[in-house]
Amino acid sequence: MAWIVGIGLVALAVAADLWVKRRRFYRRNMAGLEIFSSFGASVTTRGLERLVLGASRIAGLLGALMLFLAAVRAFG
């Protein structure tokens, strides 16, 4: 069971990271600068993306820890 949860958390972390990076990519103009409709949109979007990236890093670390502990139990 820990294997499945660990793999799921790592997959969720990778998916969230790719989601944020894709959004940032498509927000850029020809000069490579991010474009927002307003200052409020900029602050809100960046804050949301920081929260998602922070949560995804925590989920990735927890998933990797669960996989490690499951491997220790299985082979240790």
Characterization of the model:
- This protein is mainly α.
- Helices cover 82% and strands 0% of the residues.
- It has helices at 2-26, 39-75.
- α1 (2-26) packs antiparallel against α2.
- The relative contact order is 0.22.
List the helices and strands and how they pair.
Blueprint: H1 2-26, H2 39-75
Could you give a quick summary of the protein structure above?
The protein has 76 residues and is mainly α. Helices cover 82% and strands 0% of the residues.
Low-confidence parts, pLDDT < 50 over ≥5 residues? none
- In terms of DSSP E residues, the strand content is under 5%
Computed structural class:
mainly alpha
- Give the overall shape, derived from the CA principal axes: elongated
Largest sheet: none
Key words describing this protein structure:
76 residues, mainly alpha, 2 helices, 0% strand
